[in-house]
Design goal:
The complex is a heterodimer.
Chain A: E1 4-9, E2 11-12, E3 15-16, H1 18-33, E4 37-44, E5 60-65, H2 74-88, E6 92-96, H3 99-111, E7 115-120, E8 122-126, E9 129-136, E10 141-147, E11 152-156, E12 172-177, E13 186-192, E14 204-208, H4 218-227, E15 231-234, H5 236-240, E16 261-265, H6 271-277, E17 282-287, H7 294-297, E18 300-303, H8 306-321
Parallel strand pairs in A: 1-4, 1-6, 4-5, 5-12, 6-11, 7-11, 14-15, 14-16, 16-17, 17-18
Antiparallel strand pairs in A: 2-3, 8-9, 9-10
Helix pairs in contact in A: 2-3, 4-8
Chain B: E1 2-6, E2 9-11, E3 33-35, H1 37-53, E4 56-63, H2 68-77, E5 81-86, H3 93-107, E6 111-115, H4 126-134, E7 137-148, E8 151-158, E9 161-168, E10 171-175, H5 187-195, E11 198-201, E12 210-216, E13 225-228, H6 234-244
Parallel strand pairs in B: 1-4, 1-6, 4-5, 5-11, 6-10, 7-10
Antiparallel strand pairs in B: 2-3, 7-8, 8-9
Classes of the chains: A alpha/beta, B alpha/beta.
Chain lengths: 322, 248
Amino acid sequence: MTNKILVFIEQRNGQIKKSSLEAAKVAAGLASQLSGNVEAVAIGNEINDLSIVGKYDVTKVTLLKNPDLNNYSPSAYTDLVIKFINDNGIDIIIFANSALGKDLAPRVSAGIEAGLAMDCIALNLTEGKIIASRPIYAGKALLDVSISSPKKVFTLRPNVFNPGQLSDNAAEVLSVNVDSVNMKIKLVDMKKAEGKLDVAEADIIVSGGRGMKGPEHFHYVEELAELLGGATGASRAVVDAGWRSHGEQVGQTGKTVSPNLYIALGISGAIQHLAGMRSSKYIVAINKDKDAPIFQIADYGIVGDIFEIVPKLIEEVKKIKS
Amino acid sequence: MKIAVCVSHVPDTASKINIGEDGKTIDQTGITYVVNPYDEFAIEEALKTKEKTGGETVAISLGGVANKETLKKALAMGIDNAVLLKDDSYRDSLSVAKALAEEIKSQGSELIFFGKQSVDFDNSVVGQITAELLGFNCVSVAVSFILDGNKITCEREIEGGKEVVETSLPAVITTQKGLNEPRYASLKGIMAAKKKEIVEKLPVSAPNYVDIISIKKPASKQAGKILGTDSTAVPELVRLLREEAKVI
């Protein structure tokens, strides 16, 4: 049996999301290991540069197209992906574990009677079986699973699968107009958090905790994040205190993140916070308490006064950025 | 209207997780179980909705007898009835959803709240799957919920913002922090909950497609270098981030 693998390419406002290109490369790698085929499907209206998936070794992409599909509609997208899977005899479907992927993948899996593994950080082939590794308990443990149903769904944690060397290929793009779409669930408006990058998507995160001593001092966190091109995060304590919005919360009841660099300012490192950020590639901690648990997982630490150290850090970063 | 809320019973987020001897479960020593934190928002929204529209609320939980603690908490907060779908064995998300969908169908509930994810296996899928199995509309990760007749308007959290979404009953809503402030159980509520019966049922059986191979501790991270105790350490920090880590 030839394995047919499908990767879902996600767009917002016509721009392809980086996390779905990471997924494309994983799908292509899996197809070559399983001697199978890989293709991509995207849903939207106009999408910029869809042939770019070729660089990630996926040679064919189908765009299911309709002006009403520009925004995500769970009902419409679910119906279309299920139909595409059934029409094309797809066995394995891979999504990025983005907000959209998290919502769509389970709906699709219910419709095709497929087992699913969400938020995977590794897919390895052992004796012809795909072993998916996924953090559970917000990263306090790692679960390895295999899926026994004929059809299988996986979502991949963004920022974990580094695509590495890209090829020069352009994918063949097939546009298919969709006549009627199921708009039982419909997006009517979008409220952007003002010009801010989300912690779940950022390569660099600067987070503040109770050691910031009050919401009025978070301008340090914001300034440093902005200088580094990163996002601002927060601990649960400061979100619960109302200093910062919940969208910024990192940890077991907030977001689980794996940026290249995580800078923790005035965060002691409660177990539920560490669970949400411990897989960051590099961790910097600045805190006055030398016994704070955050220092046990930090690559680089400074034990001292936030308000003396952080302005200097901002100054030094400004120097290298100018 | 009949309103259901599906709740799970999970280790407190302050728990240390150790691996059981079989390498496929977690060690239960010293673990305190609580109502899944996101399910508290689901319970609160079910109660608020009932206060506005009238009707009846029921909490449903699938798991062992210990899940009764979580169901009791839901009753103490004001939920009218509770059902335990008693099953101690491992079930994957699709199998759990099939059991819940069957129970919801038999009760005739039209509006179902779930927490957006259980903080144990962190799949965040059971609400959406249950909705698909029932043919209900579903909005996940809701941070606001307005019901007007049959019409539902929700805000849901996405990367860097919120989507405003419209749909209609029957529906499943999965709840995110920010949706409401869960009430505390009153003394009267706690006393009343003690008298209420938790109905035990056997859930429908359904196959598992997701097989657990192992549960491990994540690779432990080595504590790194402490570079100093004041701002004189900052230039060295910046140098290391640039030259050693190469991240800025």
